[in-house]
Structure formats: structure tokens, C-alpha cells
Queue: 3 jobs
Job 1
Amino acid sequence: MLTNHIFDSIKLEYADMLDMSSLCRVIKLFKPDEIYNLAAQSHVKISFDQPIYTSEVVALGTLRLLEAVKLIRPQAKVYQASSSEMFGNSIDEDGFQRETTSMAPVSPYGCAKVYAYNICNNYRNAYGLFISNGILFNHESPRRGINFVTNKVAREAVRIKLGKSKKLTLGNLKATRDWGNAKDYVYAMWLILNQNKPSDYICASGISKSVEQLCEYTFSSLNMDYKKYVTTDARYHRPQELNDLKGDSTKLLNIGWKAKYTFEDTIDEMVEHWLN
């Protein structure tokens, strides 16, 4: 069951990635030692509908943040949330994507993330700032928005089980993704930022599963056959499809990271949340 206990231990302040003055104000106010930039319009399908807004927030928003850090708090360590979407359909011969894999994004979101990734490396090299990119593959939890496929599937499967819905409509069932658990990946963010030198790291499970396999496992965990309930509609296909994602986390493993949760653990957690 999700709780909001953390709110007793944190202070929230408003800022806007479109407004550099608000970023400057918050940095001046708190003088942070560590800054984690997770701000984004992060839904890939929506980025096709809102490409300019997505780029303003994800790409230029990151630049505004870096400028604020450079001007006000250059000693702060900055974590940039990079994305596996930056690779697009570029994949190494062994089927993996790693830090050295070329980037060929296939969505406005992925393109914006590539700009943010590159501008972070530029500011790191040009100004000596401590900026690390965490290239995180899909990481899931019950807090994931229900317009993302994992929680969409978990929620609707439970609704069907309880008689509140009759079918689940999805897009490309053959697309594969490397799904991990958000708790493991947040620990990776902290670990990346607490190294002696800034660098770029991939965080992934190294296991790729299709959307169809996601449906099969989720529905079977509720003693149902997904084939009786899951349908497809071309409306949910991307204008340019990203087919396969599978990350190689060797570099991150070498600094002490290790996943505690499996794909199945994560989906079970999401299903249990919706049952409750």
C-alpha cells in the first residue's frame, strides 16, 4: 500500500522549468549539495502531440537549470535523468544498448533527452561542473501514471477481475522493453551522484520483455487468460515505433549497484496496489 509519509520530512517549493528565475530562486533559497533533475513531460506518445512543449521542458528546461547551477551553486552535484528513449532503434550487435551505443531517437521526447544529455556533458567539460547522466531504462511502480503501459495493464486487469471493465485496448504488443523497479533505480541515481567523479551510467535489468508478455503475466497472476480481454487499436501506435530496448548495466554494477526486485516483483506490487 502506498503511503505519503515522506511529506513529513521534506519541504516543497514551486519552480518551473520554463522559468529560469524560479529555478534561481529555489537554488538560492536552499543552497543544495545535490540536485536531481527528474522534471519532464515524459510520456512518449504525448510528445508527438505536444513536441514544442516537451522540448521546452525537457531540453531547454535542463539548460535553464544548468545555467542556474553555474551562476549560483557551481559546487552542487547534478544528476540528469537521461532515458533509454535516446537510443531509439539503435542497438549493438549483441542485442544490448550501453553507454557507447549510438543515439538515434524516434520521438520528440527522445530527441529532447538527447539534447539534455549532450548539454550536460558540455557543461561538465566546459565549466568543470559535477554533472552525471543516469541513462535509466523503464522503471515502474504503483505510482506510475495509468497512461503508461505497465500500470495501465495492471489497473485494467484488476478492473476486469472485479467486473468493473470488460476489455483492455493497447497498441503494439510486440514492442519489447527492459522494465525495472523504481526503488532500485532511485538508489542507482543516488549512487551515481555519490561517486568521486561525474560520469554517465546505464541502469537497466538486462532483461527484455514484450508488451504481450507483460499482459500474459499480469492477467495470469489474477487467474485470467489475457487473450480473452486484450485487443489492439492502431490509435495507440506511435508515429515512429521504438521496437526493442535492453540495457547493459555493467558499468553501474562495477560501482556497487545491484537490483533487488525482478520484473515479476514489480508487476505483483502494482496489481496488489490496485486490488487494495
Note: The chain is about 40% helix and 15% strand.
Job 2
Amino acid sequence: VLRLSKVKKKNKEQSVMLSSILEMSNTDKMTGCFNRKAYDEDISEIRMDSQFIYVSMDVNGLKIINDRQGSSRTGTLTRGVRETKGTCRLICVAASCMKCRFDRYGKVYRMGGDEFAAILFVKREQFEWIRRQFDGDIKYWSCNRIKELSISYGYVSSSECQWGSMKEISDVADIRMYEEKAMYYKKNGVDRQGQPA
């Protein structure tokens, strides 16, 4: 009995350790979001006839922050721009807002750099409420080091039409996100490089 008890304890410890390793391999170190590996695994299991919302997100203004804090570099590249401590901080804050608002309904993935995706298993009507809460989180967020948080996003409901694949859904969400991003820069009178438009 004692030997069996020790074997069970050892098996449980190994199971916990394997679970921890699996979780680490599916998590983005910087933000705590799920990573691209987890995304690829998860989308391969989603049935196209299930009800979900796909959200494509991108943090605005990284180039401007980068230019202001150009000397303290971390070495990571985001779209050809070397990230500063300020841009890393902004990406982490944005990820925190996404996770805070979306984690109850699905998963948030860091796709790379300042690009994120979320897959939420909710109906469109429920997402409208979640989206308004998310917009409020972003609008009223403040910090003494970073003055503004801005995230462009586009979303697609799986029930909008008969989709052929998750790739098709993510492409449409990306298009909608980039349309919103273009409006953000136009409204602020700058281009994506932070130069006057």
C-alpha cells in the first residue's frame, strides 16, 4: 500500500509538471496571452458550425512611442521597428485589457509584435455588450508613463454567413481592423509612422 501510494504521488507530480510545461509552451512570455502555437492548435479544433466571434486586434501608436524612447531598446522587432521599454509596456497593458475583458468568454492570442486575436464563444448580441465594455476600458485607461491606450480591432461573427474556413474569417476580421486603424490615424492627423498626414 505504501509503495502504491508513493507511485500515485509520483504520477501526480509528473502530471502536474507536464501540465505546467504544456502551459508554458502555449503561453507568450511577455504578455501572458496564448501564443501562435496555441492559436494554430485551437483553430484546428473549432467547428465551423459553432457560434463564436473572431476578433483581430492591433495596438496603435507604437512607432510614435518608439521614437520618443529610442535609446532604451529591448532588441525585439515589431514590424521592422525595434521595441523600446515603452512599446513593450504598451503591448503588455493592451494585452492585460484584452485578457481582462475577453478571458471569461474564450482566449486571447498574441500573434506577434502588437498583433492579437481573440476567439470568443458568445453570440453577436452578447459580444456587442462585451465590446462596449472593452471600448470603455481602453478609453478611460490611464497611466503616468503612457498617456493613451488605443487598440484598433475588427471582428467577425461565425453566423454572418457560410464561411469556408477559419482563414477566411481571420482575413475578413483583419480587413475590418485595418479599416479602423486607418480611421484612427486619419482622425489623429498622422500616418502610421507618426508623421503629419
Note: The first strand starts at residue 53 and ends at 59.
Job 3
Amino acid sequence: MNANRILVLCGLGFIGANLSRRLSEDGRQVTVLTRSVSRHREVASVLSAMGVRVLEGELADASATAAAVEGQDAIINLAGESGAVRSMEAPLADLDGNCRANLVLLEAMRARSPKARLVFVGSRLQYGKPERMPVSEDDPRVALCVHAIHKNTIEEYLQIGRAHV
């Protein structure tokens, strides 16, 4: 990736923290947007000491997201609600935390960093029970839960955005 300024959404979780650390070690200017710094205080402290800028805010908060997106070359989106069972028990929360939040992100990118590249992380749940292993992105998608439907929907939003670039 030829990007110097990189925003990692949900950058203090296990995957996000390791990715943020590595990007910083590679000389990238890394910013992390997280729901809760206090929940990941130790990781936030380590990354901050490395020069990573750590911001607290919700992805669905338009002003927080716009401020985080401003001036970024790339955005790696690890954020969102997760889990098949939880999405079935609280489908509206999953809709807000995934679909709505990603629309907020796309609008912020369009307004503040239209040339930024976006890396979106999908879910194995989008493919249901695979017919073969390993699963390919070209395999049929048979969503078995609301979470998978929302991940597929976000990818459709991204296709529309790419068509209008």
C-alpha cells in the first residue's frame, strides 16, 4: 500500500493494534479511531508512545468520523458490530453499527478525503456453510444471519461508490 497517512478504525483490538503497531514501525503516520480508549488503555499507551495518534469516537458519529478521516491517504476499516447470534437478537443495533456507520464513513471520506483508499474487512459469515475450502471471494454467498446480510450490504455500498469515482 502506497499510503503514508493511515487511519485504522477499531485500531486497539487484537488485529487493529498489531496492524497499527506494524504500520507505525514501517514509518507510516497512523491514526486510530476507537470507541473506548479506557477499555484498551494499555494498548493505547503503547501505541501513543510509538507516535500513533489515538482518537476516541463512534464511527456513526459524523463529526468524529469526519475529523478522523481528514487528510488520510488510506483507511482500514476493522470497526463494526460483530457476531451472528447478537445480530439475530438485536438486528437494529447491527444495522446501525454496520450499515449506518459505514454510510457515515463513506460520506466523511467523500467530503474530507475523497482520494483516500478504503480497506474493508468482511466476514466468513457472508458465505454461510462453504461448499469447499479454502473459500474464495467468488464463491456463492449464502448469508445465515443478519450480520452477514449487513456485511454484504456494505460491500454493495462500496461498489456504488467505486462506480461513481
Note: The helical segments are 14-25, 41-49, 62-69, 84-89, 91-112, 146-163.
